[in-house]
Specification:
It is built from five helices and twelve strands. The chain is an alpha/beta fold and 192 residues long. It has one domain: 3-Layer(aba) Sandwich (Rossmann fold). The longest helix has 16 residues. The chain is globular.
Length: 192
């Protein structure tokens, strides 16, 4: 299947989730990440504002703030994302692409982020992701510090066996679904 076909199929499936199911499954996904070592160790987190029945991030925000962590959200700019510190979810307003984003706030360079939480339409167990096709997160993941951990959040039905990928696509190191927390490792072919 092409990226376009996979994207269309999984967006349609995600759209069918009713609100109660999306909330319930999102809580389970978030609990998988909150229990993880990479969440517990992170001092600075970059979250996203969910749209179109993406996994919610409200519990991640609450747990991070309760633990004294710095939390940033992205603002879409030109062909990238500008992460800004958010001290209250009420500071988010609808911006480009209909996504809630910080209108103001202290800039948070991606190099300072310990854990970036990434949305996606589909993922595979090697950490490859399929987003909406604009490349925002691929560009950010390409410029993160080596120590920065990237975690994709998804519902189990968004896991694919193997996604088509291109040179600019950047994988995440971990995935959280409602049933498991998955370490992702690129499968590298070794010559004999």
């Amino acid at each position: 299947m092409s990226k376009h076909d996979i994207r269309q199929e999984l967006l349609a499936r995600r759209k069918q989730l009713d609100v109660a199911t999306c909330v319930r499954l999102s809580r389970q996904v978030q609990q998988q990440l909150i229990a993880s070592d990479c969440f517990q160790r992170a001092r600075v987190l970059a979250l996203y504002s969910p749209i179109n029945n993406e996994v919610q991030t409200d519990q991640l925000y609450a747990a991070a703030v309760a633990s004294g962590k710095i939390v940033c959200f992205p603002k879409a700019v030109e062909r990238g994302l500008d992460f800004r510190r958010v001290t209250s979810l009420s500071a988010l307003t609808v911006g480009r692409f209909g996504v809630a984003e910080p209108a103001t706030g202290e800039s948070c360079p991606i190099a300072d982020v310990d854990l970036i939480v990434v949305p996606g339409v589909a993922f595979d167990r090697s950490g490859h992701r399929l987003g909406y096709g604009r490349g925002f997160y691929d560009r950010e993941l390409a410029s993160t510090a080596e120590r920065t951990k990237a975690v994709g959040l998804c519902f189990a039905f968004q896991l694919c066996k193997c996604l088509p990928r291109e040179a600019h696509d950047r994988p995440v190191q971990f995935l959280a679904t409602q049933t498991e927390f998955i370490p992702c490792y690129e499968k590298v072919a070794v010559s004999p």
